What does this fold into?
Amino acid sequence: MSEHQPTTTVQKTELENGVRVLSERVPGVRSVSVGALVDVGPKNETAGECGYAHLVEHMLFQGTGERDAGAIAEMMEIGGGGMGAFTARDYTVYHATVLDEYLPFALEVLGDMLCNSVLPAEALERQRAVILNEISGQSDPLEQSNLLMKSALWPEHPLGFPTAGLALTIQSASRDALVKFMQRHYVGKNLVLAAAGNIDHALFADQARDSFWSMSDAAAAGPAPVPPKHHLGTVVAEPRDCGHVYFSMAWPAPAYTDAERYAWHVFATLFGGGPNARLYRELRETQGLVYHIAAEYQAYGSTG
It folds into this structure.
């Protein structure tokens, strides 16, 4: 195990299997928020796996060798906290907030989920139905315009895939395929555990080792994600009977590893970050041309 003590208040430890453990002590609080970030998302999917990262996220709450889905939810409530998860385009996060004395409890539950989930077949059918309903219910025209924009900007690239997946790939996803997808990506070198609150870093690292020791130390399998090529000048339209026209536009921007990312965040906020932003004041308040307008800088590991 290698130790690293930064000059900032954030401390870092790397466990023997590659799991990176970070913490920041926040004085004056009695709670701890902890997140397990797995370096996997739609960016890692093939066209035939579209939606697998999101489906696996759902399935990890459905039971392990020791706990069923009800026990996972009940144990977090007993611990005085809450748990959730989300899938972004280039990572997946499982998170919990608990009283400080229950941090080992939360880590044990998270470790059990990420290392020992059995992906029960009967639960897969339920979660498949949930996600298919989610896909069919994507009727919000503003959200749909954003999905169309990304698919036109990055055609045939995973970043252009919808995070929830496609009905065809979700319907055909088998338990064996999901297990293989998880085995390729849910490995120690792909996991970051981060916590903030009333926390002692050395103790947190020991607790993390106890909870995640069984996670594989192998490197993530599969080809490395390829940076997308931007297809500019493409126009896609989907007629809808909704009384308004919603449209999205996109331009290439830096990845979140780029030093210019802060300037891009400021730029997006200045022009479209809220009611006082320039686009809102000019196009809605002054000219009355729009009802809603916003700008956002969306950054990923290889582009933005």
